[in-house]
Amino acid sequence: MKKISISDEYIKLDQFLKLADCVSTGGMAKALLQEEAVAVNNEPEQRRGRKLYPGDIVEVRDCGTFQVASK
């Protein structure tokens, strides 16, 4: 599991997917979420605007598992 550090209180899921290098654009993030290829804390997630906080676990099919960490 890779840790991805954020400097703010939270990060939106679509921005996190770009930060983790799973997608390169917001449109790709939207498509990935529509395919139900993302889970947050073991729950399927389709909302691009889902707020992620330090400690959250994000699983992305064909990309890996990540933990949100604070700086």
At CATH level 2, the architecture is Roll
Low-confidence stretches: none
Biggest β-sheet: strands ordered side by side in the sheet: 1-7-6-3-4
> What is the third-level CATH name, the topology?
Structural Genomics Hypothetical 15.5 Kd Protein In mrcA-pckA Intergenic Region, Chain A
Helical residue percent band: 10-25%
What is the N-to-C succession of helices and strands?
Answer: EEHHEEEEE
Tell me what portion of residues adopts beta-strand conformation.
35-45%
Radius of gyration computed on alpha carbons? 11 Å
Helix/strand structural class: alpha+beta
CATH superfamily heading: RNA-binding S4 domain
What number of structural domains do the residues give? 1
Kindly provide the name of the CATH class. Alpha Beta
CA distance, first residue to last residue: 17 Å
- Morphology: globular
Tally of separate helices: 2
The biggest beta sheet is recorded as: 5 strands, mixed
InterPro entries: RNA-bd_S4-rel_YaaA, S4_RNA-bd_sf
Keywords: RNA-binding
Organism: Paenibacillus motobuensis
Protein name: S4 domain-containing protein YaaA
Write a structural description:
- This is S4 domain-containing protein YaaA.
- InterPro entries: RNA-bd_S4-rel_YaaA (IPR014330), S4_RNA-bd_sf (IPR036986).
- With 71 residues, this protein is an alpha+beta fold.
- It has one domain: RNA-binding S4 domain (Structural Genomics Hypothetical 15.5 Kd Protein In mrcA-pckA Intergenic Region, Chain A, Roll).
- It is built from 2 helices and 7 strands; from the N terminus they run E-E-H-H-E-E-E-E-E.
- The strands form 2 sheets. It has a 5-stranded mixed sheet with strand order 1-7-6-3-4, with no helix packed on it. A two-stranded antiparallel sheet has the order 2-5.
- The radius of gyration is 11 Å and the shape is globular.
